[in-house]
Amino acid sequence: MATTMATAANSEHCGDEDNEDFQDALDSVAPARNLKLPKLDLDTTILESDLALSLFFNNKFAQAKERMQPWADQNMYHATGYGTVLYIQAVMTFDMADIEVAIEAIKSAVIVCNKNRKKSTIMGSLTKFATKVDYDSYTEEEIHAELCYAECLLIRAFLTFIQDENLISFIKGGLKIRECYKIYRECHKISLNRKVATDKHRVHFESGVCMGIGAFNLMISLLPSKIMKLLEFVGFSGKKSLGLSELQRGCQLRVGLRSKLCAIMLVAYHSLVTYVLGLAEGDIELATELLKPCLKDHPKGAIFLFFSARLEEVKGHIDDAINRFEESIESQSEWRQFHHLCYWELMWCHCFKSDWLMAMKYAERLSKESRWSKATYTYQKAAFLVMCSDQTEETKKHTDYLFSEVPKLKQRIAGKSLPFEKFAVAKSQRYFQQGGYLILPALELIYVWNGFNIVGKNQELLDKMLLVVEATVTELASKREQASCDKFYHDNYTLALLLKGVCQRHRGLLLQAEQCFLEVISNEKNLHSDHYLVPYSTVELAILYLYQEKFEDCRKLLDKTKKNYKSYYLENRLLFRLHATRLQLKTAMNSNSDSHSLTDGAGHGDNYSMEEEDFADAKEEAK
Question: Which residues are in coiled coils (predicted)?
Fold first, then answer.
């Protein structure tokens, strides 16, 4: 048995050849679905889960699902693994039938896990609050059941959010998440206080606790102040430093069952989340190091190749990123929906290169194959086409057609219109309102998706865009006398100014950038439609002051944005950036220049104390 467990502990971190050593033995254990199944002990369960995870990372998604399915109605790890695979599939396809299948699988998994949890009596529940819990009285199976139960509840909550449109579903989902977090914290206490020396699988349990506690704290700490306060009001709180440290500890438990999952979460945070929702403050060197052993074990794994490409992208190595994304696509064809993630990134990579026709090609593929937001993809196609220099009559007709289709394709997901679809519809209508043109629509897209944080890493690409922006600003400035005849003149001129300021900030021309942002803000009363430009410019100016260490000026601008501007396009997107800027500001103000630099360590601070009005707003939203 000791030999078997040693194999189990190391199998995830070996290649396919090592997995073959126990593949045949496991195949002999896995019977046909219609036969009575033997009960599996925890040793075999974790061994099988390890193999299924390795299959999944090696793009053998169907085999991973089939490995888990036979015992999914009676074994906690098989039930959790099977439900997780179906959940990932449902999220990628966004097909309601797949969502329903995943929900039923997770419901069953919750029941299976619950059966294996430690049973509590009424008297035990009453005395639990008065006495210290004896975690040594739990069997090893029972503590793993707690962990699997928490993971299943979390997936069930996420499926609830995307399944139904009504408020009751969101409340139910929130309650499930709250229960899930409570169980993770209980598992954390078990990990700290359990003294049983005979636990064979402690490393697997601890890697799961690290993943749960780390992911929860990191996720919650990223939320804007109002949402944060609402979550704290109903029992949540998040600490970014704890989240990052727990996930990193999970990565260091190399033989832990969930170690690579911790690595994926950290790499995703540093290369994706901080760029989409934050200030691009991710630790790219750490993410690169975390990914190396994953790529060594799974050199053709589509997931790891995707993140390898994303890391090249955020470094500004766009051509290398394109090659890696294409390699990820070619590595598997079983889950074609995963290709859509690569198409999305390839679209932006070609945008960054100002290769508008290639960018349009990938937007077209997404429009045909992805179920997410055809309105968004169609608007992107039209925006890229506008940027092309060769504007024939046929091109103009096709552009008109694409913009006219956008409002028809708008949809509702989970009872809400997608914020970006509202933006795309408004811009499409604007195209026709001002006589069949838009000002720099593709560069505006790059900006609102935080793409300049990547373009800014490549001065050649940035300078190319700046030339286009400056030419547009000069052209619009020459037509200033026509402003009284064109109600959208100030909107167009102000957009071009904002883009110029962003480019100059990334080139290090801070004084010129500041002048652009201030001029945008001064045009607030002249704007007819694009009111979002003023709060966005105010936050840009705050970020600029943050890097100049004008901390009080930065704080005042962030407060002004939060208090003075409401109900503008893409408001929630800016609130995430505002929150990230507040975190960096707090970190910078609490650290001295010798031990902490804004460019290296900022963004890893904890959540901060919210203002009293946030708490009042949260209570109102809760009502």
Answer: none
